[in-house]
Write a structure and sequence with these properties.
Layout: E1 2-4, H1 7-16, E2 23-28, H2 34-46, E3 49-54, H3 64-69, H4 74-81, E4 87-90, H5 94-97, H6 118-121, H7 125-140, E5 144-148, H8 152-164, E6 170-174, H9 194-200, H10 202-213, H11 219-232, E7 237-245, E8 261-269, E9 272-279
Parallel strand pairs: 1-4, 2-3, 2-5, 3-4, 5-6
Antiparallel strand pairs: 7-8, 8-9
């Protein structure tokens, strides 16, 4: 295992390995869990070198309190990664990632992907995501980059950015890892109170039930049912439940062919905001 904090040192190490080595990249914000490890294992199996970044990116947080409360567990993360001897950890400072400050970063046009769901509820979020991922791609220069499907809209945004910039790399989509009760693994889960964690288990239940209703109910009926289920908990607060096209993420009025519908949800479980989705 190698650990770097400086761009220069990381790039010197990668360059010394030679131009013929394939590089896989796993971007994270730390607070690692088995979902991240599944990305890492896939990357290690498919590349000569794998860089895993740990960086809480301030430009993608539209809520300062959310940025403040996001878990930072670098010592635990490094300990978890020690069993993966071939991983290259890159944990830079904000100044290292943005040496010229935030103001000189590019603005992206992801329309219409960023106008709905997370984009509507978190203004500027995806522009911040695009900025930091582009910066890391420039630093690491990977042939493949690995992202989890839990952040379905983010995955679509990253693919769009790579296409816009004609980047010579492959974006690898990886299945969502889940807890035994179905809750999607997330770094934010560790901030859940015991009560919030209990109620959060309703999220995957609602998604799976919504999927099963697809042949019998209209899109609007399923959305109304799902909203009612979340409200009926008396604890969870719904930001949105949407059924969208898997490619352009626009809200559906009628069902697409099988495999082209995605139900996306964002819920507050106490003070912790959780997202999830299911494709069907």
């Amino acid at each position: 295992m190698k650990f770097f904090e400086k761009v220069f040192d990381l790039q010197a190490f990668l360059n010394a390995k030679g131009a013929n080595s394939t590089i896989g990249f796993v971007p994270t914000m730390g607070a690692l869990h088995n979902g991240h490890i599944s990305l890492l294992k896939k990357a290690l199996a498919e590349n000569d070198l794998v860089v895993l970044s740990i960086f809480v990116n301030p430009t993608q947080f539209n809520n300062p309190e959310d940025l403040k409360n996001y878990p930072r567990t670098i010592k635990e993360d490094v300990k978890l990664l020690q069993q993966h001897v071939d991983v290259i950890i890159f944990a830079p400072s904000v100044e290292e990632v943005y040496p010229e400050g935030f103001g000189n970063q590019p603005d992206f046009d992801f329309s219409p992907l960023d106008k709905v769901m997370e984009g509507a509820f978190r203004p500027g979020h995806f522009n911040g995501v695009g900025r930091v991922v582009k910066r890391f791609f420039e630093i690491v220069n990977p042939q493949r980059a690995y992202f989890g499907q839990k952040d379905f809209q983010q995955l679509a945004i990253i693919k769009n950015m790579a296409a816009q910039l004609n980047l010579p790399l492959e974006i690898i989509s990886c299945p969502t890892e889940r807890e035994t009760d179905g809750l999607a693994m997330s770094s934010r889960n560790r901030n859940l109170t015991p009560e919030a964690r209990k109620f959060a288990a309703a999220i995957p239940v609602v998604l799976n039930e919504a999927k099963s209703m697809q042949p019998l109910k209209t899109v609007q009926q399923v959305k109304e049912w799902a909203t009612g289920q979340i409200e009926a908990t008396g604890f969870l607060q719904l930001d949105y439940f949407e059924i969208a096209d898997v490619k352009n993420l626009q809200h559906l009025q009628n069902w697409n062919p099988e495999g082209n519908n995605v139900a996306c949800i964002a819920v507050f479980a106490g003070k912790v905001r959780l997202i999830d989705n299911i494709v069907f």
